[in-house]
Amino acid sequence: MKEKIENLRNEAKEKISEIKNMQELQDLKVKYLGKKSELTAMLKSLGTLGAEERPKVGSLVNDVRREIENKLEEAEKHFKEQALAQKLEKEKIDITAPSTKIKRGSKHPINRIIEDIQDLFVSMGYDVVAGPELETDEYCFERLNLPKGHPARDMQDSFYITNEYLLRTQTSSVQARTMIANEDKSPIRMICTGKTYRREDDATHSHQFNQVEGLVIDKKELNVSLADLKGTLEVFVHKMIGANLDLRFRPSYFPFTEPSYEVDVTCFKCQGKGCPLCKKTGWIELLGAGMVHPNVLKMNGYDPEKYSGFAFGTGIDRLAMFRYGITDMRYLYTNDIRFLSQFDRKDEE
Ligand code: DAH
Fold first, then answer.
1. 288 CA distance to ligand 1 middle (Å)
2. Which of 127, 137, 224, 338 has its CA 20 to 30 A from that of 185?
3. Which numbered atom of ligand 1 lies nearest the CA of 314?
4. pLDDT tens-digit map of 279-295
5. Where are the domains of the chain?
6. Domain 109-348's class?
7. Which atom of ligand 1 is least distant from the CA of 290?
8. Distance (Å, rounded) from C-alpha 330 to C-alpha 284?
9. Is the CB of residue 210 below 6 angstroms from any atom belonging to ligand 1?
């Protein structure tokens, strides 16, 4: 019996020293310490031994059992440590490694310009006002000195929804809205940026585009003048497109201003020398502007004897083209990622 136990001890020690993984360890645990193991069987059979031999063999079996338990525990500890070390090694993070670039979208050039325009005019004390895109004939035309049947309505092809409602053809409608909404008829300094719509059917015009409108009204004695308009538009053009551009005021006609002007800027492409883009004139038409027509003041609750002001409007899409040197307006609306990704965020903050 003793010899058998000793053999078992040696065999177990050898096997344990050869263990390669947790599974083998579990198997040996079952084999040497489990319910069906030889040691358990021996303990059970102690009763068949004589009284003298029983305690000796019993303590030997228990010793061997403890020894095997300890060895197995040691081996288990070793494997656990090894597994942890491997895991740590595998999950090691190199905090000095360069990060992978996160791809982010960028602001559309139109939105960039809109934000810049708003910032500029807010810095000059203007309010930023919004108005509806689905507009009434009254605000889009009538209150701007364009009664039904007026020939100047032909200047803009409109999308009428009903007889009374249309998609606004110009942000000038917000001039009338602001004057009407201002119940105490106090001075106004506002701009409005937003979408406008016209029934254009040639390839170079979009049926939807963006405009900015400006309106300044103040008491007559403050004498808001053409010089103020000119200075304001100069700041606007210089900040938005280029500091070295000249402005040229050409007499023109708009129903809501008197006198009215079209404002040209030096051609951004040839710097005024003359090129195909400016049709060899050196100038590019940019804005409409003028002194608010007395009829418009009157129709919207301002007494033209007491108040005067100026107004201006322009296409934001054209501004974006000038600023970024975009030669085809359609790029702004086709959402081509190759075009849009040129406007990354670098110049934003
Ligand atoms: N609303 C005009 C247009 O869409 C532009 C314009 C001209 C606006 C003269 C004005 C202005 O405020 O005074 O063509």
1. 5
2. 137
3. 5
4. 999 999 999 999 999 99
5. 2-90, 109-348
6. alpha beta
7. 13
8. 19
9. no
